[in-house]
Structure formats: C-alpha cells, structure tokens
Design a protein that fits this description.
This protein has 15 helices and 19 strands. By secondary structure, the protein is an alpha/beta fold. The two termini are 33 Å apart. The structure holds ligand BES, manganese (II) ion (MN) and zinc ion.
C-alpha cells in the first residue's frame, strides 16, 4: 500500500518546518502555544485574516505566505467553527480537511494541535491523526505517468502536542483501525484481473502475521461441505472460488465469538442474466463486503481487541460461460434448502447463503453481521449516505445504529416480515433467488434470513456506500473502506472483555 504521509508527534516546543498549520475557531483567537510560536507575526496574520474575510468557520482556511520571523514557508490557519463541543468524528474531519489543503510535493508539515481553549486532548489529537491518514490515501499503483496533481503527497506530518507520549498511546489503536480501512479500500480498488478469488485469499492470509488463524477452503473442500449455492455461482468462471475463514481469539477462552461475513464477488458480470455494459467495470468492487471483513480483522487483531471473532468471506467470480449456471437451475445449498435460480445476477445472496449457514452451524456465534454490495435497489432507497440495515434482532440493530452515529458510517434500518418473505417462495424449489423489482433490497434480506437459523443477525447492504460514493473530508478514493470503523466501534463499545 502506498502510504502517502507519515504522521508523528512532537512537543509544542519543536521548531516547525515546511507548512505550518494552526487552528482557529470563530472567536478568531489563538491558544497559548500558537501565540508563542507566532510571536510578532500574529498581528500580520490578523490583518491577512481581515483582508481575506477569514472568520474561522468550519472547513474554511486562511492560506498565506508565512510572515517574516517564522522559519516556515507557508502558514495555514484552519477554521474549526465553534470549537467548544466537537465530537470525535469532527476531529477526524479536521485532520482530513487539513490534508486536503496541502499540495502534492509538500514534504514537511507541522500541525499545532491546539484550539483557542488550549491544547487538544490525546483522543482529539488521535482523531486528527487518523483523519490525516484517511484523507491522504490514494490508489495510484497503476499510473505510470503522473502529472503534478496525480502525485501523492509524500509528507512527514508532525503534530505538535502538549504530551507526546499520551498522544502516541491514544493514536496506537486508531492507527491500526486506519490501516484496516486502507486495506479494505485497496482491495476494492484493485482491478479484477489482478484480484480474483485465489489472489484475494492470498491477501487475506497475510493476517496470519498478526496472529489471526486463516483457513482457505478450495472448491474441493466446499464441495465436500455441499455448498451448492456458492459453487453454482462460481462454476462459470475460469477462476475457482474460495471461502476464507479468519479467527482472532483475543477474548476469554470459551466465550462465543462474534462473527462477520462478507460477500466477495471479485467480478460480477451478472452471469447468463448478463448486465448491460455501461459501468460494468464498477463490478470489480462487488467484493466490498469481503474487503471490509478483512480490514476489520486486521484492525481488531492489530489492536489486540479482547474479543473472539470469526470472519468469513465467500470469494467467487460471476461469469457467463458454457459451464455457467442458468436461470431455471435448482441448486441445493449447504443448509439442505433447494434454491431455484431465477436470475443469475442475484448471485451475492447465493454466496452468502452457504457462508452464513456454515458460520452459524460451526461457530454458534453471539451474532452474525454480513456485509454485501447486494442490491442496486438500496442505492435507489438510501443513496450513498447510509447503508441499508436489516436485522432479526432489535438490540443488535440499535447498537449498529449508534456505532454509525459515532463514526459517521451511518446505517438506516429497513423493514422485514412474513409478507415480504412469501415473495421469495418458489414454484419448484424451497426458495427462489429473485423476486420482483419492488422492495428488492428487502426481499434480498428475506432470502438471507432463511440461512441464518436462530442466530441474532444483521445484514448491511453496502452497494451505495462501499464504492463510488462522492469524495468526503476523509476519503477521496473510489473504494471507501466503509464498515471497518463502524464495526470496530460496535465491538469496542459492546463486545470486548473488560481489561
Ligand atoms: N452486485 C449487484 C448489486 C450492485 C449493483 C452493487 C450496483 C453495486 C452497484 C448484485 O449482484 C446484483 O446484480 N443485484 C441485482 C439483483 C436482482 C437481479 C434481483 C440488482 O440489484 O439488480
Ligand atoms: Mn449481480
Ligand atoms: Zn453482485
């Protein structure tokens, strides 16, 4: 992965280098360390602010040639708006917008972590540092000719703080979570000729370095398990499917694990029910759920989360071929339920059916949360701002909602019920894999629910949030890494053993 910036912490007393970033809120005052640093230059800054009508509003900035006396070239005064009661998410965004103002080629940046009210607390500093790294990520591995604007930032960003040791300690876990997000983005961004199921499995296996147990099941192993639903999708591809099971045992021995299941369709052509060619290239991101699970496993293992976790991903490629499955085929899932294939483009649910069933039976988890770029319909319903949430368990759904509010990776619950479930009954088999257009995301969730047994379960439809969402303060990459911070927060809030 291209790590565009290096973030470190230095004491307030360090002489700043390169571009100097200081913060100001709408009071237009500076904190004591900033005042000391600016010295006589503070008056010049005030006049420049007045001339530019800079009022410290959130997201705004005063960007000037550094006044004489400062040993830096450029000075950026970044507005934070009202700074009294900022939430963690807002500090993350402040870090992101700070990076957004830097130009490619900048090599050194010093950020003074202080607001007019005084030095930022270690947690707030950590959030800014996380925002910096999230925003700085760029996927440019395949660009051999870079124009100036394409060049990644290669900067050392020093955050000046009151207490360096405390800042480092606070940032350590969130730094691992950022790594997890970047891993997920990288997997989503990779082209499908490079990232096919076996290659994806190989990348997931790198989690072993962190003490994660990684088991890779090939077609033979899945055939033995009678995973006819997943294998039916996979059979039209020259690239064999895989299932990868990742286990992190950071909790008490014998404690039931929590579990996360991801849709990993490395490329979705639609199969015989082939998709139109417009934007079909986006279907390289149809493994966004699996990417999130790998990124999350990285985050949890690297920060040594005190919890037992199972991550499981179904990796396939959905292709049309002489050997591809047909509409009308009836396959037998691992659960024993038969499925009539109505539309080969409703493949994600087939993959998940077998992985969900496998995890439910084998691990008897505390809960299962699956993530999947499952339906175009969820983008019609919710756009790119919320993931769709479906659940058979109110407590789990509420906890996910709260974690979404905390992290800004928001979810919105949609209804389920027996009337919707009936729409998935098949004329010839136990269930069919596609209903009508109406309520397409809900009927997809009803299908999945038939494979979770009695396990508390939630399904996140991330088709609108995992890829192609508009750029934000903390992400400009096509793959967003959506879900890693959300689920890390959920685990941290509710499922870790007390230290
Ligand atoms: N991977 C797609 C869903 C998708 C569409 C994700 C656009 C991201 C962007 C999924 O496999 C699919 O094709 N779903 C169908 C289901 C239908 C055939 C019942 C859909 O949404 O049209
Ligand atoms: Mn599809
Ligand atoms: Zn798909």
């Amino acid at each position: 992965m291209t790590d565009a910036v290096k973030v470190g912490f230095v004491p307030f007393s360090t002489t700043p280098r390169g571009v100097l970033v200081v913060f100001s809120d709408e009071s237009m005052k500076f904190g004591p360390a900033t005042r000391k640093l600016l010295g006589a230059a503070a008056e010049t800054v005030r006049r420049a602010a007045a001339a530019a009508q800079f009022k410290g509003k959130s997201g705004s900035a005063l960007d000037i040639l550094a006044p004489a006396g400062l040993k830096v070239g450029r000075l950026i005064v970044a507005g934070t708006g009202k700074s009294g009661s900022l939430k963690e998410e807002e500090y993350i965004k402040i870090g992101g917008t700070t990076v957004g103002r830097l130009k490619a080629g900048t090599d050194a940046v010093t950020v003074i972590a202080e607001l007019p009210g005084g030095a930022l607390k270690p947690d707030q500093v950590a959030a800014i540092a996380a925002g910096i790294r999230l925003r700085a990520y760029k996927f440019d591995r395949y660009k051999t000719k870079k124009k100036d604007d394409d060049k990644a930032l290669a900067a050392q960003i020093s955050i000046a703080v009151a207490d360096v040791a405390a800042a480092r300690k606070a940032f350590a876990p969130s730094n691992h979570v950022v790594d997890g997000v970047l891993i997920a983005r990288e997997l989503v961004n990779e082209p499908p000729n490079v990232l096919y199921p076996a290659e994806f499995a190989k990348r997931a296996a790198q989690l072993r370095k962190l003490g994660v147990q990684v088991e890779i099941l090939d077609v033979k192993a899945m055939t033995k398990l009678k995973m006819g639903a997943l294998l039916g999708v996979s059979q039209g591809s020259a690239h064999d499917g895989r299932m990868v099971v990742m286990r992190w045992n950071g909790g008490n021995r014998g404690d039931k694990p929590v579990s996360f299941i991801g849709k990993g369709v490395c490329f979705d052509t639609g199969g015989i029910s082939i998709k139109p060619s417009g934007s079909m290239e986006d279907m390289k991101g149809d493994m966004g759920g699996a990417a999130c699970v790998v990124g999350l496993m990285h985050a949890l293992a690297a920060r040594k989360a005190k919890v037992n976790v199972v991550g499981a991903i179904g990796l396939v490629e959905n292709m049309p071929d002489g050997n591809a499955q047909r509409p009308g085929d009836i396959v037998t899932s691992m659960s024993g339920q038969t499925i009539e294939i109505i539309n080969t483009d409703a493949e994600g649910r087939l993959v998940l059916a077998d992985v969900l069933w496998y995890v439910a039976q084998k691990y008897k988890p505390k809960f299962m949360i699956d993530l999947a770029t499952l339906t175009g319909a969820i983008m019609v319903a919710l756009g790119t701002e919320h993931a769709g949430l479906f659940s058979n368990n109110d407590q789990l759904a509420e906890r996910l909602f709260e974690a979404g509010q905390e992290t800004g990776e928001k979810v919105w619950r949609l209804p389920m019920g027996p009337e919707y479930d009936k729409l998935m009954d098949s004329k010839f088999a136990d269930v069919k894999n596609a209903g009508s257009r109406y309520g397409g995301s809900i009927t997809a969730a009803q299908f999945l629910q038939r494979f979770v047994d009695e396990t508390p379960w939630a399904h996140l439809d991330i088709a609108g949030t995992a890829m192609g969402a508009p750029s934000t303060e903390i992400n400009t990459s096509w793959g967003s890494g959506y879900g890693v911070r959300l689920l890390d927060q959920l685990v941290a809030d509710h499922y870790e053993a007390k230290r």
